[in-house]
């Protein structure tokens, strides 16, 4: 199976599939096998809505090699409305527009490619949630 097709088989990558511990209610993204809060092993899987708010953010000016063509770019910790937190790039906003508490939504977008003919990597980026959204 080609790498791109294989990558799409992981539900958390494309559909934002998370797991909620049925014993204590803690949400995990990506899903895990054992709850680190209560050690429960029973989970309810669900697709998160992908909306939330910025908890903290920073600007990356000297990134890892695969992201060097994108610098500078903003990265933040997003607290999703469904209970999980994710670290992701923040797109479609000037650095001075990004504020703690700002509502955002996750969109599936291109991250980078490995050279001109290499594999393209996709993932979620946070974008400002506008009133019209």
Automatic annotation (TrEMBL):
It comes from marine sediment metagenome. Residues 48-109 form the ChsH2 C-terminal OB-fold domain. Transmembrane segments: none annotated. This is DUF35 domain-containing protein. InterPro entries: ChsH2_C, ChsH2_Znr, NA-bd_OB-fold, Thioester_dehydratase-like. Residues 12-44 form the ChsH2 rubredoxin-like zinc ribbon domain. Gene3D superfamilies: 6.10.30.10. Pfam families: OB_ChsH2_C, zf-ChsH2. SUPFAM superfamilies: Nucleic acid-binding proteins.
């Amino acid at each position: 199976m080609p790498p791109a097709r294989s990558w799409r088989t992981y539900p958390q990558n494309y559909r934002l599939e998370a797991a909620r511990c049925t014993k204590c209610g803690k949400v995990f993204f990506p899903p895990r096998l054992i709850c680190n809060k209560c050690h429960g092993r029973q989970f309810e899987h669900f697709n998160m809505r992908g909306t939330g708010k910025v908890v903290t953010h920073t600007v990356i000016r000297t990134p890892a090699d695969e992201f060097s063509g994108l610098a500078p770019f903003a990265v933040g910790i997003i607290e999703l409305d469904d209970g999980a937190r994710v670290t992701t790039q923040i797109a479609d906003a000037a650095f001075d527009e990004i504020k703690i508490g700002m509502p955002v939504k996750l969109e599936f977008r291109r991250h980078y490619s490995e050279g001109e003919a290499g594999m393209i990597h996709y993932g979620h980026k946070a974008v400002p949630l506008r009133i019209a959204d």
